[in-house]
Design goal:
Elements (H helix, E strand, L loop, with lengths): L3 H17 L5 E2 L20 H22 L2 H8 L15 H17 L3 H17 L8 H5 L22 H19 L3 H17 L2 H11 E2 L3
Antiparallel strand pairs: 1-2
Length: 223
């Protein structure tokens, strides 16, 4: 069933791109505070700075290794026909762990450039791109085997999202990761995947005019 929350998911992503990926975007309503991109922030204190460095040197790599060990990366590789197998984790929202790690790594790369971590993230994005269906759909559980789905997933796309399928939940984490990766690295690889997915949501849940009308009420582009 098509619902307004799904329309808002795509609209939120488009507004996020409009307000963060173009630094000279101007908010024209009565809200006087502009967002500050994380790329403009540097922390040099003894409390947060040391924890951010530890995140870069230890935590992100542990989380990445866990995603390989537990099959979360394999799900994307299998969906993308890079290897054979069946869906190999417990929940259909496990895709989001990859997205969340990419988001965190993108924040870290902006502060601590790391060519090895950058390459590892590029590899994950390649797997995500291969797993994406031609129309933009990204949900490895269905792509791997559309017959033997997780009990939370409906026979048709989106139909059980209001319950437990987490299809749109996964999309939201993808979008957050894509924006962070673009801002942190300047690369469009994940951003283009996310836009293709958001375009699918617009087609499935609402007309482009609905979203763009809302966007133009919030933002005025500088010429």
């Amino acid at each position: 069933m098509k619902n307004i929350t799904s329309i808002n998911a795509a609209g939120l992503f488009l507004l996020c791109l409009l307000s963060t990926c173009k630094p000279d975007a101007e908010i024209v309503l009565d809200y006087p505070i502009r967002p500050v991109p994380f790329t403009a922030i540097q922390l040099n204190d003894d409390f947060w700075a040391t924890r951010i460095r530890r995140n870069n040197e230890v935590t992100i790599h542990i989380a990445l290794d866990q995603c390989y060990r537990t099959g979360r990366v394999d799900n994307f590789m299998i969906a993308g026909k890079l290897k054979s197998g069946s869906f190999c984790t417990e929940y259909p929202f496990d895709d989001t762990d990859i997205y969340k790690i990419i988001e965190g790594a993108s924040y870290s790369l902006q502060t601590f450039p790391d060519s090895n971590l950058d390459k590892r993230i590029d590899t994950l994005i390649y797997y995500i791109g291969k797993a994406q269906e031609p129309d933009g759909y990204l949900y490895t559980n269905r792509t791997i085997d559309s017959i033997h789905l997780h009990p939370w997933a409906g026979k048709k796309r989106w139909e059980k999202d209001p319950e437990l399928s987490h299809e749109l939940y996964n999309c939201g984490h993808l979008y957050e990761a894509a924006v962070a990766h673009f801002l942190g690295t300047g690369k469009r690889t994940l951003l283009d995947i996310a836009i293709k997915n958001a375009d699918l949501l617009v087609r499935d849940f609402g007309p482009v005019s609905l979203l763009m009308n809302r966007a133009t009420r919030l933002l005025k582009w500088d010429s």
